[in-house]
Amino acid sequence: MHESGLRSLMGAKPRKDWNRSISEGNIPEPTDANIPSIFAMLHDARADIFERGVVACFKSLAWHDKANLPQKFGSRIVIAYLRGSMSGGKWGAGNLGHVNERCDALDDRSRVMSILDGKPGPDHRSGWYGRLNACGKVNDPDAADEYMSIRSYRNGSHVKFKRPDLVYRLNLIVAKHIPACLPAPK
Question: Which structural domain range is residue 17 located in?
Answer without folding.
Answer: 7-177
